[in-house]
Design brief:
This protein is of the alpha/beta class and 264 residues long. It contains 11 helices and 10 strands. Strand 1, helix 1 and strand 2 form a beta-alpha-beta unit. The structure holds D-glutamic acid.
Length: 264
């Protein structure tokens, strides 16, 4: 198999990034790694998340990936340096991609960011946004209940709507015009969140932004696959939990096959 794009996440959430990559780069081989045995990462300590990120990076590099995509905001927030230091191939992550998109979208320079507690506590989005434009005010809110609600499939459920209204109150009161969905689970809530925030707020979907960034990186570095045969997709997971297939397919938007279980 010609060198693949390596994508990793704490579990199934990163499949929203894989889905966007498949649409944007339909000829690329993809190797996905989801740490389904140890998810969620969003509530764990920085040291633990960095340790897990190192193990996954080594696993994918061993499979000769040509670029690494950190499709997990939590790992990108607290372990980006650890991953980059280990990797001889380019590393892209959802936070840089989402931050860049937010900077391009905001007119009033008031941006909201939602994510897991680890992502929000790290302040990584504000730092990434300020690297581009230090005048932008960033208002963040951790939304820990969104991950289980999405995994439950409650994408358009009254409970999810009420939860969103409650969480978003604190960012909406600042008059933001852009809201970054800083967790790979959240793109599945996009229609519901858009209806809660109204039509005047632009939602930055880190999965779409990531696929764009990957496409331009492959183009710039002449790393695009030159083969029009169908690509190969392989999914490594550390466990096959209850309802894995149906949850995974919801994230991926297509059949999930070629799943291999890794025992460390
Ligand atoms: N995939 C993680 C993220 O994007 C969310 C799930 C977790 O807490 O591990 O932040």
């Amino acid at each position: 198999m010609e060198n693949a794009i390596g994508v990793f996440d704490s579990g199934v959430g990163g499949l929203t990034v894989v889905r966007a990559l498949m649409e944007r780069l339909p000829f690329e081989n993809i190797i996905y790694f989801g740490d389904t045995a140890r998810v969620p990462y969003g509530i764990k300590s920085t040291e633990t998340i960095a340790h897990y990120a190192r193990e996954i990076t080594e696993f994918l590099l061993h499979r000769q990936v040509k670029i690494l995509i950190v499709a997990c905001n939590t790992m990108a927030a607290v372990a980006h340096q650890v991953i980059s230091d280990l990797s001889p191939v380019p590393v892209l992550d959802v936070i840089s991609a989402g931050a860049e998109d937010a900077v391009a979208q905001t007119r009033v320079k008031y941006v909201g960011v939602i994510g897991t507690p680890a992502t929000i506590n790290s302040n990584a989005y504000a730092r990434a946004i300020h690297q581009h434009d230090s005048e932008i005010r960033v208002f963040s809110q951790a939304c820990p209940l969104f991950v289980p609600l999405v995994e439950e499939g409650w994408l358009d459920h009254e409970v999810t709507r009420l939860t969103a209204v409650e969480y978003l109150k604190t960012v909406l009161c600042h008059g933001i015009d852009t809201l970054v969905l800083g967790c790979t689970h959240y793109p599945l809530l996009k229609p519901l969140l858009q209806s809660v925030v109204g039509g005047n707020i632009f939602l930055v979907d880190s999965a779409g932004a990531m696929a764009e960034a990957a496409a331009s990186m492959l183009h710039r570095m002449r790393l695009k696959r030159n083969d029009e045969r169908p690509p190969e997709y392989t999914y490594y997971v550390t466990d096959v939990p209850l309802r894995f297939q149906s949850i995974g397919e919801r994230f991926l938007g297509r059949t999930l096959s070629n799943v291999r279980v890794v025992k460390w």
